[in-house]
Amino acid sequence: MEAMLFGAGSHLGVQTDGAAFGAEHLTRDLPGLERRLLMQDLTIEKSHDPLDLRKNEAALNAYNERMYRTILPEVEAGRFPILLGGDHSVAIASALASQQVQGPLGIIWIDAHTDFNTFDTTETGNIHGLPLAAITGYDCADLRRFHAGSPIHVQRAVVVGARSVDDDEWTNIEDAGLTVFTTEDIQREGVEAIMEKAFRIAGEGTNGIHISYDLDVIDPQVAPGVSVPEQEGISEAEAFAVSRYITEHIDQVRSFDLVELNPLRDVDGRTEAIAARILREVAEAAKGKE
After folding, report:
1. pLDDT at 290
2. Which of 10, 178, 257, 278 could form a disulfide with 83 if both were Cys (CB 3.0 to 4.6 A apart)?
3. Residues acting as catalytic residues
4. Range of the domain at 134
């Protein structure tokens, strides 16, 4: 199968600047693969108002609609889409585009955060804390108005590697029935056992799985180049074990995101090097799909 890179150069969903440049860096790391790079208009002044609980919503929705409509025809043409972020709010476009064409899908959200806030529960108004709720139809309808189809069913959604979750966000998770495996679960049971459970849940009764891999799942001592680092994350070896499990089960995977590389916060290119290796492995595996 032909893989295609979609570069999402946006940081509209996060308070910190820099993730908008991650996609451009990563597309350079994998030459020879067809790509579409959609840059954000960086002249847009991002909201920093602490009382604004819907920060940059209109601009973010317009950006995601453009990305959604860029990805959709390529998925319809049978290509394997790989979205490079960009902050994690861009995954709304990629996951729902894949769902529209290839659904019903499950989703595995590899992230230090569950991103399951709504506009009623967000403490900051930064929309990169809402995308999984939007993708799975848990409120947040304003963030998916461009998608005419069904959301991904929350019972087929799994978070892997979470360790920073707001109190009201936990209430949302329990109300929705979202499955969450924490960093502690990974350290206790091992990557393979957790990924096996995640694939089983996300794959049951679906046509495949969308995977969204946020680099902040990795400990910032190893991968500092992310916008919202959280201490006590997974190790570099565990990060590659996660991607290895994905490549070994690529026949179940329909689409893939790699997000939140922030070159402005990276140290000696360490995070970019990890991201580039994950990207190469997934792209190579995707090319081997029938």
Report:
1. 63
2. 257
3. 88, 111, 113, 115, 128, 214, 216, 260
4. 3-287
